[in-house]
Design a protein that fits this description.
Bound molecules: flavin-adenine dinucleotide, NADP nicotinamide-adenine-dinucleotide phosphate
Structural class: alpha+beta
Number of strands: 20
Helix content: 10-25%
Mean pLDDT: 97
Shape: globular
Radius of gyration: 20 Å
Strand content: 25-35%
Low-confidence stretches: none
Oligomer: single chain
Strand order of the largest sheet: 6-7-12-10-11
């Protein structure tokens, strides 16, 4: 256990807050011992890669850093393979492992920071793929009773950037392993965003698994700030899904508004709403909105979590006033 420990290098916003104590958990046995010692009966915070959290104050309790490792093949046949990943495995390294072994399914999720244990929390998604389409099981341990519970895919209640772990059963469990079902061959998802454009520019019309992986990495590197250079937690807000009626009235007012029809309504890119209000590239002191992606709030160095949180509130209020849309924060706030 480390005491009075700075979390600056443990959150992708690079916010300099202190934890009263910091404990790494690198095995299931250690986790079970901590539960027996009633460690989670007191206030605490569970930390993975720290890439989806904004610390607005010091953590006046213990931070438990999930570092359980391991990649294990559970079963396979000619078509598919089921693989178990320890919760502390770095997500991008899991994607790399799958691509190198020619397993299909998670290539569009390349370069998402963080750990695989946190991936089911908000059903990570990018470029037309969500982890819910690959998850077989999520293995959890109850923080108080120590009971091990395995959630099937349906039991995780996945939705757009949502799961049972993010709200309904928030804080009840620690995820210690995740099983993914990967394919030995499958159609590649190239229809989203700039994927096709980049492939075309390279003259690739029959992309391989590796081509898709490389393309996603290239697009993301060109658009998103690298947390080591500019602190951020990716998209700060979810893309709102509005009713068809609301969409029709907005479209009359803002005929340049991009949109994507969904089953439940119409998705409006939050980045467009924020850019329209003039926030793209906004900077005050060391906090602001990224110059290339208005959905990403940034810390240029010494911003406080509170300053970034207040900016997010200002954006939420303005979006509500001008568009009548309630923006929801995607990032967890402490
Ligand atoms: P943390 O930030 O450490 O934790 C997030 C939450 O999960 C916290 O509430 C924490 O208490 C809880 N938690 C963490 N681990 C566990 C565990 N083992 N058991 C129980 N609770 C746990 N997200 C996307 O969906 N798509 C993207 O394309 C994407 N791109 C991003 C790009 C950048 C540059 C950045 C910085 C972030 C991006 N994100 C994206 C957000 C983030 O990477 C993901 O949400 C990621 O899954 C967070 O993982 P983490 O380990 O860092 O979680
Ligand atoms: P983009 O390609 O500029 O598109 C803007 C938004 O429009 C995206 O957020 C996406 O919503 C939506 N969109 C684009 N094409 C779509 C389609 N064919 N059908 C439905 N919706 C569509 O987005 P970007 O900012 O560069 O990000 C690219 C991808 O990476 C997106 O999937 C995004 O979610 C993901 N990403 C996520 C984070 C994060 O922290 N959560 C950070 C960076 C990137 P969706 O977001 O719903 O896909």
């Amino acid at each position: 256990m480390k005491e009075d420990f700075s979390l600056k290098n443990y959150n992708s916003f690079g916010i300099d807050v202190m934890a009263q104590a910091f404990v790494s958990i690198d095995s299931l046995e250690k986790l079970e011992n901590l539960i027996q010692l009633k460690s989670f009966s007191f206030p605490h915070f569970i930390l993975g890669g720290g890439s989806n959290i904004l610390f607005t104050k010091n953590v006046t309790s213990t931070v438990f850093h999930i570092k359980l490792k391991g990649i294990k093949i559970l079963s396979e046949n000619n078509e598919e393979i089921i693989v178990q990943f320890g919760a502390g495995e770095i997500w991008h390294e899991c994607v790399l492992w799958a691509v190198e072994n020619n397993y299909f399914g998670i290539e569009n999720l390349a370069l998402i920071p963080g750990t695989i244990g946190a991936a089911p929390m908000q059903n990570i998604g990018a470029y037309g793929v969500e982890i819910k389409s690959l998850i077989e099981k999520v293995h959890c341990i109850h923080k108080i009773t120590g009971e091990k519970i395995t959630f099937s895919n349906a039991e995780c209640e996945f939705d757009y950037r949502e799961s049972i772990f993010k709200h309904k059963r928030k804080d009840a469990f620690i995820i210690y392993a995740v099983d993914l079902k990967l394919k030995k061959n499958a159609p590649l998802q190239t229809s989203y965003g700039a994927i096709k454009e980049v492939l075309n520019s390279k003259g690739i019309d029959q992309p391989s698994l590796k081509d898709i992986f490389n393309t996603i990495v290239e697009i993301r590197n060109s658009k998103l700030p690298k947390p080591k250079e500019i602190g951020n937690a990716g998209s700060f807000f979810k893309n709102p899904i509005v009713s068809n009626e609301k969409f029709e009235s907005l479209k009359i007012q803002f005929d340049d508004m991009p949109y994507y029809k969904q089953n439940q309504g119409v998705k409006i890119p939050a980045a467009w709403l924020i850019e329209k209000l003039g926030f793209k590239g906004y900077r005050k002191n060391d906090f602001g909105v990224h110059t290339k992606q208005a959905l990403v709030l940034v810390n240029y160095g010494k911003a406080s979590g509170r300053e970034i949180f207040d900016l997010s509130t200002e954006i939420i209020d303005k979006v509500k006033n001008v568009f009548g849309i309630d923006l929801q924060r995607e990032v967890n706030i402490y």
